[in-house]
Design goal:
Elements (H helix, E strand, L loop, with lengths): L14 H9 L5 H5 L17 H11 L6 E3 L9 E3 L5 E4 L5 H13 L11 H4 L5 H6 L3 E4 L3 H4 L16 E4 L13 E3 H6 L3 E5 L2 E2 L4 E2 L10 H11 L13 E7 L5 E4 L11 E7 L2 E5 L9 E5 L4 E4 L8 E6 L3 H4 L2 H6 L6 H7 L3 E7 L3
Antiparallel strand pairs: 1-2, 2-3, 3-15, 4-5, 4-6, 7-10, 8-9, 10-17, 11-16, 12-15, 12-17, 13-14, 13-16
The structure holds 2-oxoglutaric acid (AKG).
Length: 361
Amino acid sequence: MYGSDRVPDDSDRTAFKRAEKKYKLYYDNDSKSSKKKKQPKQVDLSEVVDFKSALASFNQNRELPPGILALCSDFNLPVFCLESRPGFYFIPGALSMEEQCRWVKESLTSFPQPPNRTNHNAIYGPIHDLFIAAKERKVLVEEESSLTGLDSGPNLCVSNVEAPGWKFLEEPVTSSKGNTCKSISASVLLRKLRWSTLGLQFDWSKRNYNVSLPHNKIPNALCQLAKRMAAPAMPMGEEFQPEAAIVNYFGIGDTLGGHLDDMEADWSKPIVSLSLGCKAIFLLGGKSRDDPPIAMFLHSGDIVLMAGEARECFHGVPRIFTDKENAEITPLESQFSHGDDACFLEYIRTSRININIRQVF
Ligand SMILES: O=C(O)CCC(=O)C(=O)O
């Protein structure tokens, strides 16, 4: 087929791609053209594993759907495994509502703070206090070089020869030449936040950890949580040392394509992955993209561990549900619906946050 301009059909795709396409958010064509709000296309979710209902049935009568096993351990929460994917563990509802609120807040306020890097670094350099700036409806404005701004009037963009960059201001400003300085609102930047990295910094361009980049240690409380939750994946009682974390932020229509996390030295150590906010579909494939993946729901408060053989399995997130009926975040919304928390509420009701914690060496 080389050189042909035939449009690829489903049979050309890997099993993983086909599943991504099946669950991805599409809109009904009809509703697009009408003035009515776009309606998401209906998806058949009957094959999506729901560990929340598996837990309910397990608690009621010790019964589990075929292929799902309950881990026997002295861990203080029910832990489920998949017969066909050794090394994969699912802890439904592992985080209390207080813990979920805490990590949502930290993910938006302290985790994107320099020296932690975010997807915005490449364009804007380090940005401080993005969430506060968004709350205060500020705009990020490009500073004009002092050479052009030296004898300008009071409207000039802030000059700084040493480190021209970007700065939060109350409103867009006019440059010395009378042009409006480049600017973007903080709330748009917050919406466009896709990832931040904690601890050892991951360099996406080189796909490795760059130990020479300035970094802080992973906050102690997150470290302790990850150590505690990693225990079911380490039955010999080994220690899990959290050294790096990637925080993924998902808005409406965002996805995370199928991939492997293969830059860590010791794959026997788990990746501890926390879900917060809107419900999502997680695809757990096999060692080849041609292996049909298992689809499962991730709810706010769930924890997934991937260790050993499961580290070699392709995985991704093709869908988050932001509509009221499917997002399943009413309890979290109520937690955030008082006083000073309205900004968190506004963000999380159409978003999902994933924090995945890793031992690198
Ligand atoms: O968002 C998730 O639950 C999965 C994240 C993930 O696979 C990753 O960051 O490598």
